[in-house]
Amino acid sequence: AQKITQTQPGMFVQEKEAVTLDCTYDTSDQSYGLFWYKQPSSGEMIFLIYQGSYDEQNATEGRYSLNFQKARKSANLVISASQLGDSAMYFCAMREGLSGGSQGNLIFGKGTKLSVKP
Amino acid sequence: DAGVTQSPTHLIKTRGQHVTLRCSPISGHKSVSWYQQVLGQGPQFIFQYYEKEERGRGNFPDRFSARQFPNYSSELNVNALLLGDSALYLCASSPRGGADYGYTFGSGTRLTVV
Fold first, then answer.
1. Which residues of B touch A50 (CB under 8 A)?
2. Share of chain A above pLDDT 70, in %
């Protein structure tokens, strides 16, 4: 069964420094997608970055990059130059394989609470 | 353009009651999914609708039901509320069902069952 594991319940980082949030996944599908979402205290899930299983290059979006290591089944999020506004919950998610008529719903990890210190 | 809108934002219900949550997707998006997020956990998939048809259902009891209207808005209904149904209910929309990775979430409805 598909599964997402985030082993860091909470992380602290100094403002302007980089931080890596860990995510490992388990799937037997060949075609899948990996996502990172940010959830501030308001509750809205904000899309940050996406990596497809067949993408050869690591995804980047501004200060966010995804360190995709397919053989190790890991998809860590790297945030460079942390800002105070980055303090939030961060969720790694996987979209089920698209073969066999799968509907493509997301499976989420338990999240990591990131706190940025001034 | 308006994002995904959900109503109400907060709701308090008594055990045993019924509740209806509403979601309006981004204009042009035909797929709506519902997720339940219990405090301290990641969201869990409840339903997906595409073109007014149910395309997927998560591991939730029959007390949970949903539908999608011709304008692609959606309702999530929960009957016979239990204390354990207290959660943040998130709606996500995407242009197409399944094959597209563009999921946009609303701010959610925070349901408290007392």
1. 101
2. 92
Best mutation site among A5, A35, A44 for testing chain B: the one with the most B CBs within 10 Å?
A44
Return the HEC string of B11-71: EEECCCCCEEEEEECCCCCCEEEEEEECCCCCCEEEEEEECCEEEEECCCCCCEEEEECCC
Element (H, E) at B87: strand B87-94
Contact assignment for B101 to A95 by CB distance below 8 Å: yes
Per-residue pLDDT tens over the stretch B96-114: 765 456 789 999 999 999 9
Best mutation target among B105, B107, B110, B112 (most A Cβ atoms within 10 Å) is B105
pLDDT in tens, A14-62: 999 999 999 999 988 888 889 999 999 988 899 999 998 888 899 999 9
